[in-house]
Amino acid sequence: MEQTEPQVADNPAESRFEITLDGAIAGFAEYRLKGPTISFTHTEIDPAFEGRGLGSTLVRAALDAARDAGLSVLPFCPFVQRYIERHPEYLDLVPADRRARFSLDGGEAAE
Questions:
Q1: Distances (CA, A) of 90 to 3, 62, 103
Q2: What is the band of 29 on the pLDDT scale with cuts at 50, 70, 90?
Q3: d(Cα 37, Cα 25) in Å, to the nearest integer?
Q4: Cα 65 from Cα 59, distance rounded (Å)
Q5: Which pLDDT band holds residue 46 (cuts at 50, 70, 90)?
Q6: Interior CA angle at 26 toward 92 and 1, to 5°?
Q7: pLDDT computed for residue 110 by the predictor
Q8: Burial class (CB in 10 A: 0-12, 13-18, 19+), 84
């Protein structure tokens, strides 16, 4: 049985990015949008879809969308925070003066 590639789309009516696989919603990343800042508050993958890397696919697409829209990111969701920690190419999305709040110093600590 061949599966389609997962698709990520913003659902502004629900204030969340959703990832679908074979037409089913496999998970979501909830957010609050306030001015030029998007705060990610909760990420969830349906247990039936766990272990396939869909959480990372979802968060990567959501962060790319935030970058494309010129938004600053506040990763209140621990999953999003850890993703940024593991993928420093997204660190610039978190305002420098807010990074310590999320334990994201990016290795920029003074020596």
A1: 29, 11, 14
A2: very high
A3: 26
A4: 10
A5: very high
A6: 120
A7: 39
A8: buried
Give percent of the chain above pLDDT 70: 92
Answer for the pair 57, 37: CB distance below 8 angstroms, yes or no. no
Kindly state the DSSP code that residue 31 receives in the 8-state scheme.
Answer: E
- Cβ-based neighbours of 29, under 8 Å, separated by 6 or more: 16, 17, 40, 42, 43, 58, 59, 62, 77, 80
Which tens digit of pLDDT belongs to each residue from 61-84? 999 999 999 999 999 999 999 999
Tokens 């978190």: give the residue: 94
Residue 101 sits at the vertex; the CA angle it makes with 61 and 37, to the nearest 5 degrees, is 45
- Give CA–CA dist 82/24, Å, rounded: 26
Dihedral sign for Cα 60, 80, 4, 15, please: negative
Question: Is residue 53 within 8 Å of residue 8, measured between CB atoms?
Answer: no
